[in-house]
Amino acid sequence: MLPYPQIDPVALAIGPLKIHWYGLMYLVGIGGAWLLASRRLNRFDPTWSREKLSDLVFWLSMGVIVGGRLGYVLFYDLHAYLSNPTLIFEVWKGGMSFHGGFIGVMLAALWFGKRNNKSFFELMDFVAPMVPIGLGAGRIGNFINAELWGKPTDVPWAMIFPPFSDPAQLPRHPSQLYQFALEGVALFLVLWFYSRKPRPTMAVSGMFALFYGIFRFIVEFYRVPDAQLGYLAFGWLTMGQLLCVPMIVAGLAMIWWAYNRKPTATSAH
Known about the structure:
Oligomer: single chain
Number of domains: 1
Keywords: Cell membrane, Lipoprotein, Membrane, Transferase, Transmembrane, Transmembrane helix
Distance between the termini: 42 Å
Structural class: mainly alpha
Strand content: under 5%
GO molecular function: phosphatidylglycerol-prolipoprotein diacylglyceryl transferase activity
Pathway: Protein modification; lipoprotein biosynthesis (diacylglyceryl transfer)
InterPro entries: Lgt
Function: Catalyzes the transfer of the diacylglyceryl group from phosphatidylglycerol to the sulfhydryl group of the N-terminal cysteine of a prolipoprotein, the first step in the formation of mature lipoproteins.
């Protein structure tokens, strides 16, 4: 069994002001995505300035934060937030939904593309390889917060999370680190190398939806479902898995469509 590193969720406290590691992980994800996107900006559109890229990153980040929070409220714990709406603003405690954030990013990309003469899938193909940076950073934030841990296990790398998080004090799968490895590292490598060559428009977006859906579906088998929801279908499917099924189907459909429709301009992002 591996010891859980005791990390204070508060990275820095200045008087009443507290800066949480969870919030800093979002800054790491957004900053890392901006740096990598700036490297590929000329391949995407040589006429775009760094300022326009910054605008794109800003609005997509707003989509992640607002969509992620509202998605968690709607998909995972609507009753609690209706009972106490002020909880919606306590984002430093966690409670963000990837699927909600994904919807927020899509809406932001659709809006930004219309204002800048870019199609929805042109922007999504450009952005997709950078998204795993934020996903990986977010899972590290979950680990530091000692939240979203896994099922009890006797594997050698099992961890006992702090009592405030897990009163049962059982050795568990560190599922946050599994998600970091798959949704962060593995997904980044798949998309980064796949997108290095010109691909049909929509193909990179399809690869993102497909592989994220697969990776998340797999990890959910090792992760404890949200207590207020439990298992929702067949006694073993979680909300996360149910939300991933349409992503996997959509990813396969987009890849098939990208390679089988009449030839159009390709995207090299």
